[in-house]
Amino acid sequence: MRDLRTPVVTVLLLVVVAGILTGCAARDASGHPAAAVVEALLELRRADVRDPASYAPLVRESRVATALASPADDVAGTPRVPGWEPPYVSAETSVSADVVVVWRPDEAFTGWPVATVFLTMLEDGAWVVVDAVEVDDPPPAGDESE
User: Fold this and answer.
1) What parts of the chain have a pLDDT lower than 70?
2) Most exposed: 12, 43, 91, 121, by fewest CB within 10 Å?
3) Buried b (16+ CB within 10 A) or exposed e, 52-87
């Protein structure tokens, strides 16, 4: 029988590293844990990480983690996303936060949106990304419209 300790240890290590990245990113990502989760997700995408287990703690649905880890239909190469400004929270409730990422212009990413609003939710004590919407006019930080 195959030894399952190595895959289990690898997954646990990835979860710990994701948590550390989330904690480190919190200082740079508007100080909100939802912004830190988005920052960690972007770092994984930028590095072209292909392991769904790396994305799993950051997103609500496992199918999204699998899709993020899958290679793109077109060969985008690495990085998989352009550079970005520090994520910030534009709207927040006790269980949700809209995290805005303004993308830096990059000739390698023509047609990329001006910004993306990542919709996050607090589930079982952790912030996770549940959706993302491309926008041409990013909302300001701290808009309490929700």
Assistant:
1) 1-30, 72-78, 143-146
2) 12
3) bbbbbbbbbeeebbeebbeeeeeeeeebbbeebeeb
Residue 145 domain-assigned (yes or no)? no
Q: Judge residue 97's burial from the number of C-beta atoms within 10 Å of its C-beta, 0-12 exposed, 13-18 middle, 19 or more buried.
A: buried
**Domain total for the chain?**
1
Residue 76 lies in a domain: yes
* pTM for this prediction: 0.75
In this predicted model, what pLDDT tens digit does every residue of 89-120 receive, in sequence order?
Answer: 999 999 999 999 999 999 988 889 999 999 99
